[in-house]
Amino acid sequence: MNSLTIAIVIVFVFGYLCIALESVTKINKAAIALLMCVFCWTLLMLSPATFYPGVEAPEVVHKVAEVIEHHLGDAGGTLFFLMGAMTIVEIVDTNGGFNFVRDAIKTRSKRKLMWRMAFMTFFLSAILDNLTTSIVMIMVLRKLVQNREDRLIYAAMVVIAANSGGAFSPIGDVTTIMLWIKGVITTQGVISEIFIPSLVSMLVPAFILQYSLKGKFDKSQNLPPAEVSQFTQRQRNIIFWMGVGGLIFVPIFKTLTHLPPFMGILLVLGLLWTTTEIFHHNTEEGDTMAKRVSDLLSRIDLSTIMFFLGILMAVAVLQEIGVLTALGESLDKMSGGNHYLVTGIIGVLSSIVDNVPLVAGCMGMYPVAEVGDMAVDGIFWQLLAYCAGVGGSMLIIGSAAGVVVMGLEKITFGWYMKRITWIVFVGYLAGMFSYWLIRTFIF
Prior knowledge:
- By secondary structure, this protein is mainly alpha-helical.
- Helix content is 74%, strand content 0%.
- The protein is built from 22 helices and no strands.
């Protein structure tokens, strides 16, 4: 490892520590993430030929520019998907579309609400995806729980349940989508063998966290009257089914057209936007201007978007200089080929850096075998799907769902690490143990 690579890693680690200590430094994590991204790429540009030895000196600058554009395209697709999903959920929520979800899980018992919310999040994330489901459930929670301390615990449970639910579905998480498209896992295989471990990884933290919630909600704090627009019940139902149905349609749209997922989100957003504008023609202007999509767009938390951009582009530098690949190879040597240990460590690492390049690196490092643990639906690939998805819950910035919830509810890194990380780790190990039992004694 050359000195420039070491310098880039040091900058990344220092920036990561500053993000983790946001509550101490009082500096917004988005600002740190953007600085970390720019400094890492700047260091790479001091001697780009070091990392692209086969490229001639005059062309290496253009090579780096192309690489940055490639990674920016990948990050941009994620960001547009995120912004589109957030806007769609905001439209549905503002116009009373999620009232029935609120009514389905509402209860004055704090612990009952925890369990109802956990199961609904778990199964919704498998149907939609963990990112979109997290946004939906946070919107519902805001209507049900007014006390901030209680809501932080519920929000943490949303992150855990969303990531666990996404791990057993081929369309529930971006990493399972990658493995599914690559052909190393099948729909039947991942659902039949990963469902129980994923469920265990959600049940164990929920069982522990319920003891942080005692008593019942006050009527004044729980179940406030819903704020709805002047739309009729039929119009609100149309908005709901267009929004949620559209989100479900996005994976189908991708399969049919082979376009990136964010294009499907933009299609749904455009149709929903047009529909609400038509509905607004029959209402009084003063009652609806604040609920039109053009105004709702201003509510998107751009600091979360900037944070996401900085993190993704900073991790891209580590991917370009070969740090992630070297890390994976070292893990394989240290573990002696123990797939449970390798994937278990990868899961822990996915809570520190983005799980997408980690999984991508694993797919590049390990060839698919015809038989054995590395075959299609083999132990390694199924464990990778589980560990990369569930492991991201250990830290609040370890998954897309966690980053979004962190921005929406202003959860600090330190609070989550102190209160939630160990609980997630216990559930993570319990899920892996249940998978071992399934593979050893059932399949």
